[in-house]
Amino acid sequence: LDLRNEDLKELQELGQGNGGSVKKVEHVPTGKIMAKKIVLIDAKPSVRKQILRELQIMHDCHCDYIISFYGAFLSDPNICMCIEYMDKGSLDGIYKKIGPIDIDVVGKVALAVLEGLTYLYDVHRIIHRDIKPSNILANSKGQIKICDFGVSGELINSIADTFVGTSTYMSPERIQGAQYTVKSDVWSLGISLIELALGRFPFSEDDSDDSDLSDLEDFEGTLSPQRPGSLSGMPLPPARKKEKKPKNGETSKKDKRKSKGVSLQGSGMTMSILELLQHIVNEPAPRLTPEGRFPKEAEEFIDSCLFKDPEERVTPKELLKHSWIDRARTDTIDLEAWTSTF
Ligand code: ATP
Ligand code: MG
């Protein structure tokens, strides 16, 4: 299929992320409905062509748990990727609409993500790098698939150079600068599953006692005037009492530079994010709480995703053998019926 921008009729805006936007489109010559992801890339033509070449690997990704790829093209100054349209959207949108997701459905999500990650790694040696609810999609057939994985090294580099990506699902070892491994994806999966089951981002007021955050004086140069209550719409730890005001508007620009690699949904959020990253590194990992509310197997599965030491954490492939995942596999819960409820 030779995709050209002229052949794509825009139908609807599906959402906006840090690096671009996603639109529902119709490929007019074939009538096929697709999602067109537009990524703004500030890179040389040679790099852009390289990215396009690297993206072609996605043509070889055939797995029920991975979004299908129809093609990519340059549309100055953007790179456009056409992928399978998932009519129920991403899981973050779903839980924000319907509230906490039933733990049995969460089990099916865990199974789908682990299958997808194992396929990507075993067949293509690809590490996802960005597991989070907004990159897990559902459709009305009851299928669950992952998208936005790191196929293109050049794209990862360019994005890192041009804007900052989300970091709050990042594992402690990644925050501390270690190499990405499949185990970092497992951490992100653990955080995402808690978020779905609780209906809120796990690092939030209720379970952060904030007592460790007193050495944040190191970062006072980057403090922001206002304490935004949310990052990507998610609650953050409570505000610090001792915030110092920056002198002027200049500060926010400087903040962005300083915190490269840290998500900023707008200026003035640097403090909250540093606080959060520090919390992830220094505090015990979040858990599926309150104890007893969820099946023991689910609690234990999440605990094993969230070992802070990557040596202790197991790979997606090993996690597929966990008893909670076994149970999810044989569970007869009807996901198609579930998706028809919203
Ligand atoms: P970030 O930029 O931080 O990774 P994100 O994942 O939300 O955040 P995008 O990947 O640009 O950002 O996606 C924006 C939104 O578009 C998603 O939250 C999702 O709801 C929607 N979306 C993405 N891909 C599809 C798709 N294939 N089908 C349907 N909706 C999609
Ligand atoms: Mg995404």
TrEMBL record:
Q: Which domain of life is it from?
A: Eukaryota
Query: Does the keyword Membrane feature in the UniProt annotation?
Result: no
Which sites bind ATP?
K37
Residue span of region Disordered: 209-265
Domain Protein kinase: from-to ranges: 8-325
Any one GO MF annotation of this record:
protein serine/threonine kinase activity
Where is the sequence biased in composition, kind Acidic residues? Answer: 209-220
Key words of the record = ATP-binding, Kinase, Nucleotide-binding, Serine/threonine-protein kinase, Transferase
**GO terms under biological process:** signal transduction
Segments crossing the lipid bilayer? none
What family does this chain come from, according to its entry? Belongs to the protein kinase superfamily. STE Ser/Thr protein kinase family. MAP kinase kinase subfamily.
Q: What is this protein called?
A: Pkinase-domain-containing protein
Entire protein: shown range: 113 to 454 of 454
